Amino acid sequence: MQILGAIQASTLPLLALSPPGWGATLLLGLWNSVQIAFGAFALGLTIGIFGAYGKLYGSPVVKDLLAIYTTIVRAVPELVLILILYFAVTDAVNQVLLSFGHDRIQISGIAAGIAVLGVVQGAYSTEVLRGAILAVPAGQIEAARAMGMPAVLLARRITLPLMMSFAIPGLANLWLVATKDTALLAVVGFAELTQATRQAASTTKAFFTFFAAAGVLYLLLSIVSTLIFSRIEAWARKGQRRMGG
Amino acid sequence: MREFFVPRRIVMLVLGLALVVWCVVALRWDWLANPKYQALILTGIWNTLWLLVVTMVVGMALAIPLGFAQAVGPWYLAAPARIFCGIIRGTPLLLQLWLLYYGIGSLFPSVPWIRDSALWPILRQAWPYAVVALSLSVAGYEGEVMRGAFKGVPHGQLEAAKAMGMPRFTIFRRIWLPQALHRVLPTLGGETVLQMKATPLVATITVVDIYAVSSRVRQDTFIVYEPLLLLAVVYMVIAGLIVLLFHWLERRVPTRSA
C-alpha cells in the first residue's frame, strides 16, 4: 500500500479548486447530485403520500394498480428503470411536441434525473408512509371522524403530523438511498458527482485520488444528512414519551 | 384463491394479457432468433446468477464477524467494523466499484511484484473487481443487520449454554449464530433482492451480465425498448424466485409462535 500511496500522493494538487485542479468540477457535480436527490426525494414523497392513501383507503382497482407499481419498481434494478423511463419519457415528450408542431427538444439532465429517480423513490415512499399511517392509533383518526372533520383536514391535522415520527427513520433511509442513486445517472451521462469524477479521473489518469475524493464527499453528505434527520426526528417526536432507558 | 379472482382482477388480467400480446405482436423480437444473441443472453443470465450467489455467500461470511465485532467485540474491533460499515453504506456502490476497478486496478500494473505474480492474469480481468466490490457491499450492509441479530438473541439462551458448561466457541456455533441467522432470515430475502438489483452495475466495468447483453443488443440493432423489456422481465423472474426460495427456507426453520 505504501507504494500505491506514494504514486498517488503526487496527484493531490489536482484536487485544487482552481484549474488545473478539478476540485470545482467535483463540487459542481456534488451540487448537481444534491439537487437531483432533493428533487427526486420530494417527488417521491408526493407520490408516496398519494400512494399510501390510495393503498389504504382507495378503491379496489386503485389498490391493485398501486400494488403492481410498487412490486415492479422494487423488483427491477434502478439502472434498468432509469434507462426505460429515460428513453420512454424523452420519447413521449418529443412525440407530444412533434404532434403540436414544435421541434424536438433535449430534456435537461436534472429534470429527467429527478423524474426518473422520483418515480423509483415514490414506490419505496409509498410503503414507508403506508406503514407509518397504519401505526397511527386508530382511536385518534376515529375521534377526528366522530368530530366531523373533513378528510383533507383530518389528514393535515391528525394523520400526517402523528405519523411523522414513525415515518422519519424510513424517510431518512430513503433520502440516503436517493443521494446514492444519483450516482446511477452517471451511466446515462449526467454530470453529477460520479460522472464528474470519472471525467476528471480519466483526463488526469489519477483514478484512485479522484474516486477516493468523491467517496469522501458522498460520506460527508451522508453524515450531514444523518445529523439533520436526527434533529428532525427529535422535533417530530416532541411530546412523545421517551422509550426505554 | 377464489378471493383473488374477483371480476375486477379478471378484467385487469385480460388487460394485462392484451398488453403482453400487443408487446409480442407489435414490437420487434426478431433479434431473439439470432443464435449469437441467444448464447449471449444465456451467458448473461448465468453470469448475473453466479455473481449474485457468490457475492451473497462471501459477503455474509464477512458480515458475521463484522456484526459480531460490533455487537459484543472490544472497542479496537468494534470501531473499525463500524467505520467499514459506515463507509460502505455511505458511498454509492457504483463509486466503490469504479474506485476498485479504475482506481486500484490502474495502480496494479505500475507495481512490479504484482505484475510478475501468478495472480496477474486474473487481476487483469474485470470480474474479480466486481466480486470484491459486490461482496464488500453485502458485508457492509449485512454487518449492520447481523449486529442487531446478535444483540437480539435472548440472554437466557446464552446463560443456559454457559451453565451447561459449553465452551465459548461451541456456544457461538451452536446457540448464538444459528439463532441470529434465524432472526435475519426474513430480512435476508429482501436484501438478496436488493443485491440482485445491484448486479447490473458490473456491466459498467465490462463484465458481461444480462444487463450488458441488453445494452449490446441495443447498440448493435438500434432496438431500444425490447431488450430493456426482456431485461425487466428477467430481473422480475429472478426476484420472484428469490422471494419463493426464502419463503421455502423460512418454512423449513421451525418457529414457535405464541
Descriptive terms for the model:
heterodimer; A: 245 residues; mainly alpha; B: mainly alpha; MetI-like fold; flat
The assigned structural class of chain A equals mainly alpha
Count of runs of 4 or more consecutive helical residues of chain B: 11
What is the number of E strands of chain B? 0
CATH homologous superfamily identity of chain B: MetI-like
User: End-to-end span of chain B in angstroms?
Assistant: 27 Å
Q: Per the principal axes of the C-alpha atoms, what is the gross shape of chain A?
A: globular
In short:
With 245 residues, chain A is mainly alpha-helical.
Structure description:
The complex is a heterodimer of chains A (245) and B (258). Chain A has helices spanning 2-9, 23-57, 60-75, 78-99, 109-135, 138-146, 151-181, 185-188, 193-204, 207-236. With 245 residues, chain A is mostly helical. In chain A, helix 3 (60-75) packs across helix 5 (109-135). The relative contact order of chain A is 0.15. The model of chain A has no long low-confidence stretch (mean pLDDT 84). Chain B is 79% helix and 0% strand. Chain B has helices spanning 7-26, 35-72, 75-90, 93-107, 112-116, 120-123, 127-152, 155-163, 168-198, 210-221, 225-252. In chain B, helix 2 packs parallel to helix 7 (127-152), helix 2 runs antiparallel to helix 10 and helix 10 (210-221) runs antiparallel to helix 11 (225-252). Chain B has a single domain, classed as MetI-like fold (Orthogonal Bundle). The radius of gyration of chain B is 23 Å and the shape is flat.
Question: Layout of SSEs?
Answer:
The complex is a heterodimer of chains A (245) and B (258).
Chain A: H1 2-9, H2 23-57, H3 60-75, H4 78-99, H5 109-135, H6 138-146, H7 151-181, H8 185-188, H9 193-204, H10 207-236
Helix pairs in contact in A: 2-3, 2-5, 2-7, 2-9, 3-5, 4-5, 5-7, 6-7, 7-10, 9-10
Chain B: H1 7-26, H2 35-72, H3 75-90, H4 93-107, H5 112-116, H6 120-123, H7 127-152, H8 155-163, H9 168-198, H10 210-221, H11 225-252
